[in-house]
Structures are given as structure tokens and as C-alpha cells.
């Protein structure tokens, strides 16, 4: 029997991309999986979300976050995956919005679920990014939020060790999701990008999901406050 | 535990006769792999009474500080899916400040890794396999009494990255696990004394020393398809001590 069977998991932003792959991996391992998304219902997405408990919750809205936490009284694993980049991150309003969604909401959910995670001796896995380690100049708020997520992972990892909660982060490189579809459509840009990746290929959402499951599992029982890059070697250069 | 299937695969754990390497070897074996291990003693029977469990493992004698012995080493493998290098040397009581000792430690921990990685590259390339080497918290920090050990482990970190870049085109991934203080025979001097151990544990957020199995989980993960897009990376397994 899998360690995950019978566990309760929440994957924010689990309706698509890396989040969906992670939700599916936990479900396949036998967990009961809650996901959140911004659309009204699970039926509003192209992918089949019927294997999950869907919650409409925009990470930009404090009351949505409160309602989400209230709806899930027991939790073993919290995956803070929801996040986005904006077109207007060089305006203060745009910057603040992204910081709220990518960073403040993570702290908020961690605080709200802290009692449940302490009760279950659970784990938190945050989804960072390459930009936790290097700048993407087009998106200063995204970069800032993901770098700060690394610091938050370390601080909570230290603080909540006393409660038996482990907190870690994954840092995906360029992953084949809808979000990066535009980059693949541009042949020259893709070619340039592949030159920078030692493995010479895009990552798959399932490859991030696998690392998240590992960090949440007993196989990582002595690992906390750490980040794990899943990038085909991109950060090596 | 994560159920990982290594059936049909062959794994070599250098330094797999005791401690962290042995825990990893047994975890691979539980996953169905055919596992070869090396140690410095004459044969498997010589490990009776240690923390090493050699049941079901194929034992070879090897001193990774001996360049000629490593060059001649032939475990008779026709394929190799994962190479784990867990052998390591450390000296206490300022012995590493003697230049001969300094060289011995570097030769075992650093040059040994380089020699084994290049030696087994053809087999690993054919299997699109993985290398995991065992670094340390000392890959990231100085250690006042162990200049050679920390230099070797720091070197392993960048060597892991360099080899990851060099071998990526061959489909071979190279990663490192960096254990904190793990309760093994090698580190016994640091935890056998109760007062010293208590002071150490007080500085570890998870409030306990690590066990070999804690590190084995990370090693097996990095060798598995779960880590297919991870290369040149290091995972600290230290209970949050350096978080």
C-alpha cells in the first residue's frame, strides 16, 4: 500500500499544468485530493477533474482563502502551486497583485492550515521557480515572489520543525504547459532555449509532480527547508 | 514509503557495506534491483557485528583511495542503471592537518568519485542511468577540524555539477545528496558522547540525528525515473539544520 493512501492533500491551482499533474499523482497514489481553481466549477475546465474535490478560490481574495481553509478541516499535505505572472508588473498595482497571489496567499494558507498540519504531522511543498534563483526581467513581481518563497520555505521549515511539519520547495525549469505554449510556438526562441538546457528538452508536468510527492513522502522524512530544482540542468550554467 | 520498481536493474553502491550506502543498497534491493556493493574489508562475513546488512547483496572489496585498485576493479557488470558513491573518509583529532592525510582524504573522497564516474560512464550511458554521490553539509560549509573532508565534499558539489553538464548529452544524470549528522559508524565519535549529541540535536530543527534510511530515500529517489529531469542538483538531508 502506498504511503499516500488515505491521506488528504490540497493542491492550489490544481486545475491545470503542474498542479493538475500533481493532483493526479497524489490521487493515483490513493490520496483524497482537493484542488482549487479560479473558475466557477470543475466542469468549466477542459481537463477531466472528476477525481478531485474542486473548490473555487482565487488566491488574490482573502475571503476565498479563508473559505478554502474552512472547507478542509483535516490535511496531510499542502501543495502551494497556484501562481501567475502579469503583464503589468512594472506598475505598483500590478506588482502588488502578483505578490499577493504568489507569496502572501502562500503564507496565509500555511497559517490557516498550520493546526491541521501539526495534527497530522504533515508536509508543505511550495512551487517556486527558476526565478527563485535568477531574475526574469520581464516579470519583477513574479521573480520577487518566487525568490521570497524560498526564504519563506526556509523560515517555516525551521519554525515548524518543532511541530513535526516539514516545509520544502520545488523549482521547476521550463515545463511543457499551456503557460509556456507561446515559447514553443516561436521556433527560434525555442531553439535558443534548448541550447541553454543540458538535457535539451522541456520538462513534463509529471516530472515536477514526482518530486513534490517525494518531498511530501516519508522518503524525505529528514528533509526540511530545502529546495529542489527540476530543470534538466538549466541552473548549472 | 514510495514504492519504486527497480526490477531488472543493476545498481552499484560503492561504500555500500555499512551506514548510508548500506541503507541505500537495501532500499534498491527491496525495489527489485540486483545490487552490488563495495567495502574495504576482506569479505561480507567481516561485517558481522556492524550496522551493515549484506544479505542479498553482492560484495566486492575495494579501496577507493587506491587508484590502481579502482582502475582494475571489475564487478562483472553487463549493465549498470545506477552508480551510488557513498564511500567516504574522515579523520579526527586534527589528523587532517597533516599533509599526507589531507591528500589521502581528497584522493578517496574526490578523485575516487571522478575515477569511478568516468570508469562506469559507458555502462551508464547504455542504460541511460544515474549517478548519485554522497556529499555532506560540509559541501556548503567549512568544518573547523576537518579541512580535507570539507574540501573534498565542497569539491564534490561542483564536480557533480560539471559532470551533470558533461554527461547530460549521454542521458546520464548526476546528483548529490548532502547529509547532515547521520548516526553511522563513521560519525560515531560525534554522537557517542551523550552531552555532545544533545548539543548537536539542539541545533537541528527536527530535533533528532538523521538515520541512514533518511538519506537512502533521497538517494533512491534521485536514481529513479521520478527524478528524470533533475541533474546537477543537491538535496540536503539535515533535518533543517542549514535551512
Give the number of domains of chain B. 1
Q: Which word captures the global form of chain A? A: globular
What's the overall average pLDDT of chain B, rounded?
Answer: 94
| Amount of helix of chain A | 40-55%
What percentage of the residues of chain A does DSSP assign to strands (E)? 5-15%
Query: What's the rounded overall pLDDT mean of chain A?
Result: 95
Structural category of chain A: alpha/beta
Reading side by side through the largest sheet of chain A, how are the strands ordered? 3-2-1-4-5-6-7
Greatest chain-chain interface? A-B, 40 and 38 residues
Q: What's the oligomerization state?
A: heterodimer
* CATH architecture descriptor text of chain A: 3-Layer(aba) Sandwich
Order of helical and strand elements of chain B:
EHEEHEHEHEHHHE
Q: What general outline of chain B do the C-alpha atoms trace?
A: globular
Give a brief description:
Chain A has 237 residues and is an alpha/beta fold. Chain A contains 7 helices and 7 strands.
Question: Your description of this structure?
Answer:
- Chain A is α/β, with parallel strands linked by helices and 237 residues long.
- Chain A contains 7 helices and 7 strands.
- Helices cover 41% and strands 15% of the residues of chain A.
- Chain A has a 7-stranded parallel β-sheet, with helices on both faces.
- In chain A, helix 3 links the parallel strand 4 (77-80) and strand 5 (123-127).
- Chain B contains 7 helices and 7 strands.
- In chain B, strands 3-2-1-4-5-6-7 form a 7-stranded parallel β-sheet, with helices on both faces.
- Chain B is globular.
- At the A-B interface, helix 4, helix 7 and strand 7 of A face helix 4, helix 7 and strand 7 of B.
Amino acid at each position: 500500500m502506498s504511503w499516500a493512501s488515505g491521506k488528504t492533500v490540497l493542491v492550489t491551482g490544481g486545475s491545470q499544468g503542474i498542479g493538475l499533474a500533481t493532483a493526479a499523482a497524489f490521487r493515483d497514489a490513493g490520496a483524497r485530493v482537493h484542488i482549487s481553481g479560479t473558475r466557477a466549477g470543475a466542469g468549466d475546465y477542459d481537463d477531466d477533474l472528476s477525481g478531485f474535490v474542486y473548490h473555487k478560490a482565487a488566491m488574490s481574495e482573502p475571503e476565498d482563502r479563508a473559505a478554502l481553509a474552512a472547507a478542509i478541516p483535516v490535511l496531510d499535505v499542502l501543495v502551494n502551486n497556484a501562481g501567475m505572472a502579469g503583464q503589468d508588473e512594472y506598475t505598483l498595482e500590478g506588482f502588488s497583485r502578483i505578490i499577493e497571489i504568489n507569496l502572501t496567499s502562500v503564507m496565509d494558507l500555511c497559517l490557516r492550515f498550520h493546526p491541521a498540519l501539526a495534527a497530522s504531522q504533515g508536509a508543505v511543498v511550495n512551487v517556486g521557480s527558476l526565478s527563485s534563483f535568477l531574475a526574469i526581467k520581464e516579470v519583477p513581481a513574479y521573480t520577487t515572489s518566487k525568490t521570497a518563497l524560498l526564504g519563506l520555505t526556509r523560515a517555516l521549515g525551521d519554525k515548524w520543525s518543532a511541530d513535526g511539519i516539514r516545509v520544502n520547495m520545488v523549482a521547476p525549469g521550463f515545463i511543457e504547459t499551456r503557460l509556456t505554449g507561446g515559447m514553443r510556438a516561436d521556433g527560434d526562441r525555442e531553439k535558443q532555449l534548448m541550447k541553454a538546457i543540458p538535457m535539451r528538452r522541456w520538462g513534463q508536468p509529471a516530472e515536477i509532480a514526482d518530486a513534490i510527492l517525494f518531498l511530501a513522502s516519508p522518503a524525505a522524512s529528514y528533509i526540511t527547508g530545502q529546495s529542489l530544482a527540476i530543470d534538466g540542468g538549466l541552473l548549472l550554467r | 514509503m514510495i514504492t519504486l520498481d527497480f526490477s531488472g536493474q543493476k545498481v552499484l553502491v560503492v561504500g555500500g557495506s555499512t551506514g548510508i550506502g548500506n541503507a541505500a543498497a537495501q532500499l534498491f534491493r527491496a525495489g527489485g534491483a540486483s545490487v552490488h556493493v563495495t567495502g574495504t574489508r576482506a569479505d561480507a562475513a567481516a561485517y558481522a557485528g556492524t550496522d551493515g546488512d549484506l544479505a542479498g547483496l553482492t560484495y566486492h572489496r575495494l579501496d577507493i583511495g587506491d587508484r590502481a585498485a579502482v582502475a582494475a576493479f571489475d564487478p562483472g557488470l553487463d549493465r549498470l542503471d545506477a552508480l551510488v558513491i557513498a564511500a567516504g573518509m574522515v579523520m579526527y583529532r586534527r589528523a587532517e592537518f597533516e599533509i599526507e592525510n589531507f591528500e589521502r582524504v581528497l584522493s578517496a573522497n574526490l578523485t575516487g568519485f571522478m575515477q569511478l564516474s568516468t570508469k562506469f560512464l559507458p555502462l551508464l550511458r547504455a542504460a541511460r542511468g544515474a549517478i548519485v554521490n554522497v556529499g555532506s553539509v560540509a559541501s556548503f560549509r567549512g568544518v573547523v577540524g576537518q579541512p580535507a573532508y570539507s574540501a573534498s565534499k565542497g569539491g564534490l558539489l561542483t564536480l557533480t555539477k560539471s559532470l551533470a553538464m558533461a554527461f547530460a548529452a549521454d542521458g546520464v544524470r548526476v546528483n548529490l545528496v548532502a547529509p547532515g549528522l547521520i548516526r553511522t559508524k563513521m560519525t560515531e565519535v560525534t554522537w557517542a558522547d551523550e552531552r555532545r549529541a544533545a548539543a548537536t540535536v539542539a541545533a537541528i530543527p527536527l530535533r533528532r540525528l538523521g538515520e541512514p534510511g533518511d538519506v537512502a530515500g533521497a538517494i533512491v529517489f534521485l536514481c529513479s525515473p521520478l527524478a528524470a529531469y533533475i541533474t546537477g542538483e543537491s538535496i540536503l538531508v539535515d533535518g533543517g539544520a542549514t535551512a
